[in-house]
Model the fold of this input.
Amino acid sequence: MLKKHPIITFIFFGFILFLISNRLDELRVYQGATVAVYAIGIASLILLIGYSGQVSLGHGAFLAIGGFAAALARIHFDAPIWLTFVVAVLAAAIGGALLGLAAARLSGPYLAGTTLALAIGLPSIANQFSIFGGEQGISFDIGLPPASLGEDFTQYKWFFWISWTVALITLYWLRNILNSRYGRGWRAVRSNDVAAELAGIHVGRNKVLAFTISAGLAGLAGALLAMTISLASPGVFPLALSFSLATGAVLSGVTTLGGIMIGSVTLVAIPEIALAIANRYGSETITTNLPGLLVSALLILTVLFVPNGPVEQMHAKRAKRGHSSHSPVEISVRVGSKTWSTKK
Amino acid sequence: MNQFLDMVLIGISAASIYSLMAISMVLVWRSTRVVNFAQAGMALLSAYIGYELVARVGNFWIALPLAMILGAAFSAFIEFVLMRTLQKHSSQGAIAAIAPIIATLGLLGLIRATIGFIWGHADVQIEPPLSKVGFTFGDTTIVMSPMGLFVVLFVIALMIIVSIVFQKTNIGLALRASAHAPEIAQLAGIRVSGIRTLGWAIAGAAGAAAGILQTVNGTGALSPESLEFSLLLVFGFIAAVIGGLESLPGAVLGALILGLVLAAVQIYISGALVFIVAFLLLLLVLILRPQGFLGSKAGRRA
Amino acid sequence: MIRINRRKLITTSAVLAIAALTVATVPAQALNPQMADPGITASTIKLGVTSPLTGIASPGYNKIPGAMKAYFDYVNTNGGVNGRKITLVSKDDQYIPTTAVAKANELILRDKVFALVGTLGTASTKALTASTQLSKRGIPSLFVNTGWSGFADKKAYPTTFSILPSYQMEAKIMAKYVKETYAGKKIAIIYQDDDFGRDALAGFKTAGLTFDTYIPYASGSQALPATGAGWISKLKTAGAEVTVLFGVTSASTAALANAYGAGFKTQWVLGSVGGDATTIAATNKAYVPLLFGAKGFSFAPAPTDTTDEYIKLFQSIYATAQPTQTFDNNVVAGMSNAFLAVQALKAAGANLTRAGLIKAIETKGSTFASPFLTPLGYSSTSHVGATGYWVGTYGPTGALTPDGGKYTVYTTDSGTGPVVLSTYTRPAMPAKGL
Done:
């Protein structure tokens, strides 16, 4: 259904969410907004890692850029909400382009380590300029929901609606991009950059573009996150956030957007599950350590046994049975007696 | 002049700790072409094991080698269980590049949680076996204490031993061959998978030493969230990259450069810029000389 | 191929439709106007606190909720407040703002507490106050554990009450002390290079104190091996005779340890945040003696002062409630917090409402009994708590005792007001400390 009528699917999903938001209690509504934030963040990593083959362990830095940019736009220019998000995307995208340019020749562990260093160093950079508010950060207040929605319309429902509207639009747009020639170009470069170059794809530009878009998306997620916390501070974007997003991306399956809800919901659900277990046993140690344990264990198991993610695994099974609707990208180039091919 | 001497000594002290971590990472890289981001976690676990040993045995000088052996064993175990399964299942597709990285990240989280379960979150202490008061010449005290000196000498000794093993012994040859050309090495009769485990084991020993010495040379306190270890990981990585991930002496040289530069920045400019300078140094090296100072151009492949 | 898709389409739509209908039959949870405030019954009051019980900021601070509970239990065994017993729900936010918001949401929406008390950390408190809309919901946030002066602003935070003096107040008082006691000496300062430290610098500037050497450090860098040594090297070169330390405890530990290692002697003057001996001891007991001779600041009676009636009472309560824990300034802080909360709840009367509680503090807060040695500044225009500090010296066990044997308290404001000697005499403790 998704393939044939994507717009209808997205709208239908949005309608379901609208219904749900009216029936859930506030805490769930708030958590639902967080799921949307994670969905966008994970999507940005799927683009970067799964499609473009570049790795980033510090994507939290781009969320931070987006969050701070949005907050500053609001405080200093009284920008309307939609404009703060645009500013967040642009600021983070610029950051992504810069890092992409600097890192275009890096790959694998070098890139991973550099992005990690960035994530650790960014808060310290921010602290140099008092405009970022230091440890306390700066507030990000998007205001109350419009009066036309009624007295009982809570702030958290407003967050839910905004983040999910943005998330659905973003995911729809991203899906189109990934299925376009850009997406194919990225997958080609990821499989074999030499073959791709020979086929006429400008590898450097291709990689930087991926980084830029990925960073822009992350910035959007960061702005939404800052919105739900009403604050942009270094503590809102810790190193753990970068790791969580990477975890969520792997849980969802980095090669496709299809499983994205799995990762996002899991990230929000795990602390809840851990809390429920801990309450049953009533131990302080369990409450603190269990969430981390569960997430890490889940991550390792996924990477070991379902490395390409559950959705891809399903496709692979179906392909084996002959029902393949998923054609891999293949480029073969022959020069004289040598052949370069992306076919694996 | 006095300040300059201080800066040099401080830089060397810091460098000695960074280099242990860097050596560990280079070892893993050279034997299995993986950057082990769980190195910090394993060093942390080894440090806790060291704490237990010191508490039970009562003697640091026995506890240190014991902890290194246990660290080596644990590291080998991880390679055997985690990395080999990884190779079997995820050597294809997009995930191949980052699967080891993600797996080691998961390992880090697992180790932290386990440590929290077993030892709790309150700080535990390891008592330094040597004095941390600086040597005194006349009425000036320099910024190098017996403890600091030991760490420096330890690193030099370790580097010499490991280099000899790698360059001059058959095992070392096997290690290098298995990393660069595994198929050929296998044809030559080398049990590549076993050799890789050995590489991780040696790295584990170095990491254990890094964890314990870092703790003892610092505040002596350990906790699962010890910030020092995450920083240590990043700085060890930066040091390894500066010197060249391919080269063991490079790891030490990179650590020395990093340590001295950061010490200079701290003393002559401002302590607030430490992270920024480290990051910029990393970027600079990656852009201008990506194979590191002592790496050869052909060697760097990632 | 098409058959499969259509079947999938029908199945998916059916599943989703059924799910939607099921969910839709669950009754809507509208925000009905409450007849009574949540968290109160005829016999109980539920309060909530979120603080770092684990994580990097936890040593020392993680004793505060336990200390609060100890006092609340004592009050409960003595009849409670106007016939109601107090329950405290404590959550761990690990000093991370996003977690603090999530925990505050749980306290308000799931546990349905009557009020928050003693939340810790500027960023965390800022985040949870804004995100959970405490002011719109009218939920009181009593006696937040942070020195950020912004929380005292009633217009911005109408339901929040601070309790600690602000960092600017502290800096101004430190400045007066340093200027008078160490006139003519070479003075240096090590400070954390963010809002926390720069707040203090602003205070020093207002009070007219300039330093010969400024040593900022990036927050987090104090954990690196070379950082502390670098500070000492700079201090040595500058010949600093007096060094002010306005940073977190891990920075104080790094400074003291490296000074010892380098054989460098200076007169240390520690800010209250970084001067917590318990936190230092938690890091390494060997460092506590290094505090000996350093100057420190506090506004509560010293935990070792057994001549003080509040300390005596708190010690006996804590000894029964938590016999394995040491009684220190964090315990005093927690129990004082709880004590003030109980005074406020009593003043709000038997007909307890959130709005009533807030009004009670605003109108009668300045006359509440309190263990502090400075007057409380609560009024209808100000939500400021303690307003001053006394100077003391650390002993070899890390205990801070007042200079001159008695508490000489100075008070000031967060603005440009002068630092004056306080004439406040603390009223006697109510009977049995209730």
User: Anything to note?
Assistant: The CA atoms of residues 206 and 416 of chain C lie 6 Å apart. The longest strand of chain C covers residues 44-51.
